[in-house]
Amino acid sequence: MTDTFVALGFAIFIWWFSTGIVIVLNRMSQTTITLSLVISSILGIGALVGLAHTAHQTGVTGAYCAFTCALLAWGWNELSFLTGWITGPQKTAIFQSTQGWPRFVASFNAVVWHEIAILLVGVAIIVITWDAPNQVGTGTYLVLWIMRTSAKLNLFFGVRNLNEEFLPAHLAYLESFFKRRRMNAFFPVAVVSASVCLWMLVNFASQPLVTPSQVVGSVLVGTMLALAIVEHLMLVLPLDTTALWRWAIQKPHKSKVEEALDTYVPARLNAHLDSHDKSFQVN
Length: 283
What we know:
Order of helices and strands: HHHHHHHHH
Shape: globular
Helix content: 55-70%
Low-confidence stretches: 253-269, 275-283
């Protein structure tokens, strides 16, 4: 029971903290973003090596290592996308009047290179861990991949909360591909299907002949699936979806010099315009 609670807490903390770190890094200077991409790429390669090393480990430590390596590989996907490094050829917003197939094509073109990158990393993980006893890393990556794809589809079909606050300024055009509505027909199918898979994991972990490492692995993968279901529910419930990561998405504080300029420049501009034509005064 202790192993279960430790694994549960570990997965929840990693999910919350890693999401916040990616958001924070993406809002820093260009130099920091470039450095973070380099470090993330190195960690991503190291994660694949780690998955190959732990694939045949059947202990509890191997389950934790495989889980962490899968998250590092996924983190590279997330960071490369949010920084705008790997997105798609469509880099401009579409008109609100664009509907149907043209809207889907434009939306897909906005993320197609990112989706290909996710696919290639996923195939690499499957090949590395093929027919190995430790499938925690593969299971973790597949859960993240499938549930993130489901979330993207729900944003496309329409949900209450679009989570546009999480988009950095250089990806603001992606909001034009989202649709705001209470719910869509695909949403309950996605949530129910994920819930059934979660129940199967819980049922497997509760079997008497399951080893401690299998229990830990099931809890780690199942927790990520449960959190993904919660994220889906946050798309349609009247809740503040940014509350958990407010510390990460808040705008950086301006220096006193910047604040002074923000006050001084508009005031001088107003005075200048007022001396010529009050009809052009800046408010």
